[in-house]
Write a structure and sequence with these properties.
Helix 1 runs antiparallel to helix 2 (about 15-35). Helix content is about 75%, strand content about 0%. The longest helix is centred in the C-terminal third of the chain and has 39 residues, at about 70-110. The protein has four helices and no strands. It has one domain (about 1-110). It has about 130 residues and is mainly α. The protein has helices at about 1-15, 15-35, 40-65, 70-110.
């Protein structure tokens, strides 16, 4: 994966900006993948998000190791990525909740109950006559 290579290079040279740029690149790729949902896109997005997490950890480790206060650009970049990740996390949590509730509703209706757990109204069938 391209981002993993960027991470190794940035970690080796100790450049926080390179790690931050790699994390931004990963987030751009995630956004592009999520705009075309598929199973493959979901798997690739998950891997990219893990890599973004690693990149941000690399930035933090480099800054801690060097003992310097990050400049405004790096701090703003990290905060921007944190906000984007928080929005994605909120989106995924909301989507998960919606799908879970939707599936629960389907199961309860098929089981003869309403969403509140009460017996579903009976559906009357027109009178049939069988001769034979």
């Amino acid at each position: 994966m391209e981002n993993a290579t960027e991470y190794r290079d940035a970690r080796e040279c100790g450049d926080a900006r390179q790690c931050l740029d790699a994390a931004r690149s990963g987030m751009r790729q995630v956004k592009k993948l999520l705009s075309r949902p598929s199973l493959d896109a979901a798997d690739e997005s998950a891997a990219l998000l893990r890599d973004v997490e690693v990149q941000l950890g690399c930035v933090a480790a480099i800054l801690r190791q060097n003992g310097v206060k990050p400049d405004v650009e790096i701090r703003a970049g990290v905060e921007e990525l944190q906000n984007e990740v928080a929005v994605l996390a909120s989106f995924f949590a909301g989507a998960d909740k919606m799908i879970t509730l939707w599936l629960d509703g389907i199961r309860s209706r098929r089981g003869g109950y309403t969403e509140r757990g009460q017996a579903a109204p009976l559906v009357l069938v027109r009178k049939l006559s069988v001769e034979g």
